[in-house]
Design a protein that fits this description.
By secondary structure, the chain is mainly alpha-helical. It has one domain (2-75). Helices cover 87% and strands 0% of the residues. The longest helix has 27 residues, at 49-75. The N and C termini lie far apart (44 Å). The mean pLDDT is 91. InterPro entries: DUF2198. Keywords: Membrane, Transmembrane, Transmembrane helix. This is General stress protein CsbA.
Amino acid sequence: MVLKYLSALVLPCLIVILFARVTYNRVLALVLTVALIAASVYKGYTDSLTLIIIDAFSLTVGFWYAERIKKKAKLHP
């Protein structure tokens, strides 16, 4: 059970950052990650509201960090 919560806290953030680096678009990265989480909820892997809230928090952190990376890259060409 603890593993579910730890992965919900870390993995969505990392996936958003990965997709943002691959697609060069943080909004598209967020949409793709939300689609993956929605599929997870549909299949029954995410079974509580607490996990969904933790996923949402992790998505927000990943989205923020992807923007931070983007701004930092613009400062240092």
